[in-house]
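QA checklist item 7 of 12: single-chain prediction sanity check.
[x] sequence parsed
[x] length recorded as 80
[x] structure emitted
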Amino acid sequence: MEAIGILYLAILFIACFIVVHTVKLAMLGLKSTRVKPEKPPEKQEKSEKPPEPVYYIVEKKQRRKRADYGTPREIKFKEK
């Protein structure tokens, strides 16, 4: 009896999946038919100068100095 319930659940899931995606695709198609295609912009004559090249100033990486550690000290913990 449990197997038939699982089968019905799988069929219901697949049916809902198909219905939801069909509605989404229908809405997408409806929106695409309502939107008028835009006219391509007219070609502009190139009377302007080409853009100037951009130069970036990059600094050389400097090496880190070695860390100088002090003399080690002894740590004492209190005993209870």
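[x] summary fact logged: The radius of gyration is 36 Å.
[ ] second reviewer sign-off
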